[in-house]
């Protein structure tokens, strides 16, 4: 069973679950429509998914990463988990540019739709982004989220949760 202790852990957990669900849907579309098979943009579900995806990258994902990096990762260092921090930072550094690129492509095609060429360019970037972020969020769910109960005392937890709420 997943250990979720404290408000900060709960907030991160909920965001991980939400992003994993979004990435799941994105991956399903990418699997159904290979690089040579652009989806039908008349399908409202596809349009909605792509705009949700672009919106999530531009807002929630960046804020989430920023909070982790500013507030939580320094605690990992201070608690002998520097290796975990380094791994997560490396993930973030790879994921953000991929996400920005994929979001810009999704936005650019949101009104006109993807054609063969733009879909072929979008597909591998979105697939790599989805794969990396899925693995990253799963890794944090397995290791970081359960550790927060030890890293934060109740008062710190309350303060950080409040600060994060204000960032969102
Ligand atoms: Fe992260
Ligand atoms: Fe995270």
What is this entry, summarized?
The protein is an all-alpha fold. Helices cover 82% and strands 0% of the residues. It has a domain at 60-168.
Characterise the protein shown here.
The chain has a domain at 60-168. Helix content is 82%, strand content 0%. By secondary structure, it is mainly alpha-helical. One fe (ii) ion binds at residues 12, 16, 64, 68, 137, 140.
Characteristic terms for this protein:
single chain, 168 residues, mainly alpha, 82% helix, 0% strand
The unreliable regions are none
Q: Report mean pLDDT, rounded to a whole number.
A: 94
Kindly report how far apart the N and C termini lie.
28 Å
Q: Tell me about the biggest sheet?
A: none
What percent of residues adopt helix (DSSP H or I)?
A: over 70%
Basic shape: elongated
Strand % is under 5%
Helix and strand succession?
Answer: HHHHH
Question: What is the strand and helix layout of this fold?
Answer:
Elements: H1 7-32, H2 44-78, H3 82-108, H4 116-151, H5 154-167
Helix pairs in contact: 1-2, 1-4, 2-3, 3-4
The structure holds fe (ii) ion (2 copies).
């Amino acid at each position: 069973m997943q250990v979720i202790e404290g408000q900060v852990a709960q907030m991160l957990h909920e965001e991980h679950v939400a992003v994993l669900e979004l990435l799941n849907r994105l991956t399903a579309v990418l699997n159904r429509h290979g690089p040579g098979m652009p989806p039908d943009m008349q399908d409202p579900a596809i349009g909605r998914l792509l705009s949700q995806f672009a919106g999530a990258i531009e807002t929630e994902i960046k804020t989430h990463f920023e909070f982790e990096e500013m507030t939580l990762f320094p605690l990992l260092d201070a608690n002998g988990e520097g290796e975990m921090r380094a791994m997560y930072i490396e993930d973030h550094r790879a994921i953000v540019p991929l996400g920005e690129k994929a979001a810009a492509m999704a936005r650019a095609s949101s009104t006109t739709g993807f054609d063969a060429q733009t879909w072929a360019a979008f597909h591998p970037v979105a697939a790599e982004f989805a794969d990396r972020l899925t693995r990253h969020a799963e890794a944090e769910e397995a290791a970081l989220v359960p550790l927060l109960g030890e890293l934060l005392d109740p008062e710190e937890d309350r303060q950080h949760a409040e600060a994060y709420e204000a960032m969102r």
